[in-house]
Amino acid sequence: MNEIFSNDCCPYAEVEKLLAGARSSVDNFGDYDIILLLIAATGISLPEALKLKWNNVDFEDRSIFIESSPAKKIKICQSVVTELKSMLTGDLVCELVFHDPNGRRLNPVRFTEDLRKIRELAGVSDSIGINTLRFLHGLRLVDLNVHPDVICRRLGQETGKYVIDHYYRIKDQGTAVEVMEEAGGYLVS
Question: The domain that contains 156 carries what CATH number?
Answer without folding.
Answer: 1.10.443.10
